[in-house]
Predict the structure.
Amino acid sequence: MSDIALFDHNLISPEVQAALPPNHTIRALRSGDYERGFLQVLEVLTEVGNHTKEEWLERFDYIKRHNHEYFTIVITDDVKDRVVAAGTVFVERKFVHKNGLVGHIEDIAVDASQQGKKLGLRIIHALMHIGAKRGCYKVILDCSAKNIPFYEKCGFTQKEYEMAWYVPVKKASL
């Protein structure tokens, strides 16, 4: 199977690519990124789980079929051929703002060995660029209080509050 990109490269910001450190590339997630450590990068955020290659490809194929809504990008270390940063923007279709579009940024992750190189900032700017190119009237994200200063540096302003409800996990009966 060839290394298939999630979406067309014309949505990637050339300005962001130019601002990356040498031997780093920003691009759409590819089907071969399972082997390049994409899931391991996400582990800096939360539990990821043990995906088989088949499970990975099943999810990748679903997102690829919906690539007008889901845009996952990565930064690679080209010398090591490894994913070192990642993020996603998905586009919500609204009735408000005359059927407007809203970009939601999720799952910003930078490998611990690559932190301090402004890769998180580059991922955010690239996702904002994608949101703008897709016609979003705004791009939003949720973050912890400690990350507010970082996102303000990226151009975001604090607005309102996040709420969450987690579905209770059912315990197995004995």
In short: The beta strands are 24-28, 70-77, 82-93, 101-110, 138-141. Helices lie at 14-19, 38-42, 53-65, 96-99, 119-133, 148-153.
